[in-house]
Amino acid sequence: MEPSALIPPPRGESVPGLGVVTWNNPGERVTYAAGILAVHTPHATKLTAVLLRPLLTSRTTCTRCGDPWPCNRATWANQALHTQDGTQ
Ligand SMILES: [Zn+2]
Question: How far is ligand 1, taken at its centre, from the CA of residue 18, in Å?
């Protein structure tokens, strides 16, 4: 007996920047996550600093929100692309 077969998947999900979101289908969630990853990227100039000073730990930041990389939105999006909203 699998409890997961009796309990429906969660209807809402807490998404950074959006709040609790109810997806109409897994594809919608994946599409949104891909869009997040397209705009939330590591800051290129900070990566250059890492190359110039390899012995120093440089904090790469997100180009979109300025948070330390990976930002919480990119972290969520990466996870969302590897999990299919409780369907697996
Ligand atoms: Zn970000």
Answer: 13
Cα(7) to ligand 1 centroid in Å equals 33
* Model confidence band, residue 88 (pLDDT cutoffs 50, 70, 90): very low
Q: How confident is the model at residue 43 (pLDDT cuts 50, 70, 90)?
A: confident
Domain span at 48: 24-88
The reported pTM is 0.62
Q: If you measure from the C-alpha of residue 6 to the centroid of ligand 1, how many angstroms do you get, rounded to a whole number?
A: 36
The tokens for 82 are 């590897």
Number of domains in the chain: 1
Q: What is the distance between the alpha carbons of residues 60 and 34, in angstroms, rounded to a whole number?
A: 20
In terms of residues, how long is the chain? 88
In a domain, 54, yes or no: yes
